[in-house]
Amino acid sequence: LLTFSKINSVVEKLKELYPDVHFEIVAMSTTGDKILDTALSKIGEKSLFTKELENALEKNEVDLVVHSLKDLPTVLPEGFTIGSVLKRENPHDAVVLHPKHKGKCLQSLANKSVVGTSSLRRAAQLKKRFPHLEFKDIRGNLNTRLKKLDEKDDFSAIILAAAGLRRMGWENRISQILGPDDCMYAVGQGALAVEVRARDQDILEMVSVLNDSDTVLRCIAERAFLKHLEGGCSVPVAVYTEVKNSQLYLTGAVYSLDGSDSLKETMQTSISSDNQKVDEKVQRVSITALKVSEAPQDAAVKLGVDLGNLLLSKGAKEILTVARQLNDAQ
C-alpha cells in the first residue's frame, strides 16, 4: 500500500511545476496489500501489488499511478510504462530494534536472537553475515510490523527499508543502516516511480520533468540485470549502484536461501554523452525516460545485461533454480 506521504510528495512537485492543473488523489489498496498472512516470496507475482491500479489506469479512472519502483516488475503489461523515476532516497535497509535492545546493533544481539524480515534477499545475506542470529518471516505494513515488534516478545529486531521509515517520519526508530558489505538492496529500492498509459504523450511529457537522471540510469541498469537473470521476489537477488565521475558502477549478487552459496560481481560503464539525442519512443525495462539522453540509457541496459551474463556464466542460474525450488517447497 502506497502511503499518502509518497503520493503527496509527487503531487506537490507536480503542483509546483503545473500550478494551473488540478490534481486529485485517489487512494487505492491492492490484493497484495491485503494478503498479510503469507510471505511475500510465496505470493510470487508482483502484479498483485499493481493490477488494480493498472485497471484504473486502463479505464481512464486515473491518469498516473505512484509506486515504489521495487514493486514494479521489469516487464509491464502492454500499454503501460514508467514515465518518471524520482530522485532516489537512501536505498539501504535499516535495523529497527525492540525497545529493550536500545543501543545495540545486529552484531551485539545475543545468540539465537530472532530478527524479522519478509525478504528472502535480506535473510540470505544477513544469515551469512550474522550466523548467530535467527531470521523469521514478518508481514504487514510498516505500522503492523512495528506493532508486532514493540508489543510482543517474538522479535529482537526487524529489517525495513530506510526510505520507507523516513517517509513515515520514523527515522528515530532506525538503530543501524546496513551498508553494502552487510546487505545490498533490492532492485529499485528507495525510488518512487510514476506509471502512466504509454500512448498518453501529454501525461508522459508532464511527468518526465520529475525524472532524476542518475536515479533513472542506476535503476535501468538494476532492472536490466534482474530481468536478464529472470529474478523476482521469490529468489534472493541484490544490487548496489553508484555514479562517480561519469561512470556507472553496478554490483549484483545472487544467493542461496541460507546465504551459504553466492555469486557477486561488479562492472562499470561510461555514461557521459556528447550526443544529447533523446529518443522519446523507446522503453527500456519498461521505463520511458524523456529528457534523459539516449546513449547513457543504452549503456545502462548493456551494463545490466553484461553483469547478468557474467553471473550466469559462473553458475547463477543453478543457485537461483535451487533457491526457487526450496522456497516453493517450504
Automatic annotation (TrEMBL):
GO biological process: protoporphyrinogen IX biosynthetic process
Catalytic activity: 4 porphobilinogen + H2O = hydroxymethylbilane + 4 NH4(+)
Coiled-coil region: none
Obligatory cofactor(s): dipyrromethane
Domain Porphobilinogen deaminase C-terminal as annotated: residue spans: 217-275
Gene Ontology molecular function terms on file: hydroxymethylbilane synthase activity
The organism's place on the tree of life at top rank: Eukaryota
Keywords carried by this UniProt record: Acetylation, Cytoplasm, Phosphoprotein, Porphyrin biosynthesis, Transferase
Family annotation (CDD domains): PBP2_HuPBGD_like
Residue ranges constituting the Porphobilinogen deaminase N-terminal domain according to the UniProt record: 4-204
InterPro entries: HemC, Porphobilin_deaminase_cofac_BS, Porphobilin_deaminase_N, Porphobilinogen_deaminase_C, Porphobilinogen_deaminase_C_sf
One GO CC term on file: cytosol
Compartmental location: Cytoplasm, Cytosol
EC numbers on record: 2.5.1.61
TM regions (residue ranges): none
Pathway participation: Porphyrin-containing compound metabolism; protoporphyrin-IX biosynthesis; coproporphyrinogen-III from 5-aminolevulinate: step 2/4
NCBIfam families linked to this entry: hemC
Described purpose of this protein according to its UniProt entry: As part of the heme biosynthetic pathway, catalyzes the sequential polymerization of four molecules of porphobilinogen to form hydroxymethylbilane, also known as preuroporphyrinogen. Catalysis begins with the assembly of the dipyrromethane cofactor by the apoenzyme from two molecules of porphobilinogen or from preuroporphyrinogen. The covalently linked cofactor acts as a primer, around which the tetrapyrrole product is assembled. In the last step of catalysis, the product, preuroporphyrinogen, is released, leaving the cofactor bound to the holodeaminase intact.
Subunit composition and interactions: Monomer.
Family: Belongs to the HMBS family.
The name this protein goes by in its record: Porphobilinogen deaminase
UniProt organism field: Cyprinus carpio carpio
